[in-house]
């Protein structure tokens, strides 16, 4: 639903201005006419959900997961969608999500189809979600599509949790290392700087470097925040530029281990979505649209669009996937077997499960390599500081003895 700004004339002939929430401009004019207003001008502003999200609780993936599972059960039991939305909105603890469900319920009461009401809140949904629900209109199996979406989202949530768990220990080590360097630079080293200056000792190069770093860090600590913030903003800006994002995505796929994790994640998601939609009775060309929308990597998405064009020409799935020359051989072979034996959904799910395990294995290898690298870096920093301080102290003691 969108917020519209309007100007009108009331029954007393006075000019009035205001805002009204409606599905589209004709709907806004109809609602205003019901208020006995003579509409002069109506213009759209921003989606209702976009306004609601600002400064309010974020809708989480788990909220959408539970919604999908509950709605699937209600639809399967023959309960009207309006009643299902009403029950879920009363039971959810997320105020933003409850408001969105109320809005969807009100739209459906006005005759808007469920998928169109859902589309008004697309910002809170995963990229592939709306396409799968819309495709269920072709099969008349909304409950099956919602149940498959719930299963897929649950698997995706579990996979993300495993990835976060695998990266938790290295992240803690990196965080502690950064905090240690900051404490040394801002609080510890300046005291040694004052001591060495009082002794008027000739300091070695390593100590002078350390002192300069400590002086800079204590005086211009804010430059680190500016640099980190600038880097984050710069990366986000670059990823929003189409050409730059394609370049970064292409380079990311070429990074050892990390590239394999990115590729396998893309393959796992594509296979699982295709299997989910195929089991729900959605035509494969519609399923390809949802698979493309689900891809976060522009290189993989581009290959999927090429496959989609081939599918529309009647080539099936196996040959276009093989010709794409980016997907692993194991995935291509399983799709080929699935098409040949009529077990495409089973083979796609098998491929998704296989690459999910591969991602877990690659992440473990990545953390195995990452942990000693972090330890070496921390040891180098601590060793450099220790050598610099010991050399300076030894030099200062030697100078005082000579005097």
TrEMBL record:
Q: How does it sit in the membrane?
A: Multi-pass membrane protein
A single Gene Ontology biological process assigned to it is: protein secretion
Q: Which UniProt keywords apply?
A: Cell inner membrane, Cell membrane, Membrane, Transmembrane, Transmembrane helix, Transport
The source organism is freshwater metagenome
The primary site where this protein sits is: membrane
Gene3D superfamilies with a match to the protein in the record: Type II secretion system (T2SS), domain F
Q: Which residues does the UniProt record annotate as the domain Type II secretion system protein GspF?
A: 67-190, 271-390
Of which family is this protein a member?
Answer: Belongs to the GSP F family.
Look up the record and report any one GO term of the cellular component aspect.
plasma membrane
One Pfam family named in its UniProt record: T2SSF
Membrane-crossing residue ranges in chain numbering:
167-189, 219-238, 373-394
Do you know which PANTHER family this protein is assigned to? GENERAL SECRETION PATHWAY PROTEIN, TYPE II SECRETION SYSTEM PROTEIN F-RELATED
Q: What is this protein called?
A: Unannotated protein
User: Hey, what's the signal peptide range on this chain?
Assistant: none
Which subcellular locations apply to this protein?
Cell inner membrane
């Amino acid at each position: 639903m969108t917020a519209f700004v309007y100007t009108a004339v009331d029954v007393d002939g006075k000019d009035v201005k205001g805002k009204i929430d409606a599905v589209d401009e004709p709907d806004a004019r109809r609602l205003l006419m019901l208020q006995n207003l003579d509409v002069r001008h109506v213009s759209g502003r921003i989606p209702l959900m976009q306004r609601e999200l600002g400064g309010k609780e974020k809708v989480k993936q788990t909220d959408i997961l539970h919604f999908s599972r509950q709605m699937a059960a209600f639809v399967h039991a023959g309960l009207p969608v309006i009643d299902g939305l009403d029950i879920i909105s009363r039971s959810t603890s997320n105020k933003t999500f409850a408001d969105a469900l109320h809005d969807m319920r009100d739209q459906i009461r006005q005759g808007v189809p469920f998928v169109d009401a859902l589309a008004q809140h697309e910002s809170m949904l995963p990229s592939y979600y709306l396409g799968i629900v819309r495709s269920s209109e072709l099969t008349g199996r909304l409950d099956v599509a919602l149940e498959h979406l719930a299963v897929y989202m649950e698997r995706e949530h579990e996979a993300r949790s495993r990835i976060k768990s695998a990266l938790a220990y290295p992240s803690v080590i990196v965080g502690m290392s950064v905090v240690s360097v900051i404490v040394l630079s801002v609080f510890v080293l300046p005291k040694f700087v004052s001591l060495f200056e009082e002794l008027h000792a000739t300091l070695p190069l390593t100590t002078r470097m350390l002192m300069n770093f400590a002086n800079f860090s204590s005086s211009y600590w804010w430059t680190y925040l500016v640099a980190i913030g600038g880097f984050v903003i710069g990366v986000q800006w670059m990823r929003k530029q189409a050409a730059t994002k394609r370049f970064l995505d292409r380079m990311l796929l070429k990074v050892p281990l990390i590239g394999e994790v990115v590729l396998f994640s893309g393959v796992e998601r594509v296979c699982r979505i295709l299997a989910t939609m195929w089991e729900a009775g959605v035509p494969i060309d519609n399923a390809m649209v949802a698979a493309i929308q689900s891809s976060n990597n522009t290189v993989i998405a581009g290959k999927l669009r090429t496959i989609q064009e081939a599918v529309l020409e009647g080539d099936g799935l196996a040959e276009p996937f093989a010709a794409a020359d980016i997907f692993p051989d194991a995935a291509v072979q399983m799709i080929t077997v699935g098409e040949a034996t009529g077990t495409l959904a089973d083979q796609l799910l098998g491929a998704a499960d296989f690459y999910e395990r591969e991602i877990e294995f690659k992440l473990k290898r990545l953390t195995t390599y990452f942990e000693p690298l972090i330890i070496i870096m921390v040891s180098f920093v601590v060793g450099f500081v220790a050598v610099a301080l010991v050399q300076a102290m030894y030099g200062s003691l030697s100078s005082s003895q000579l005097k």
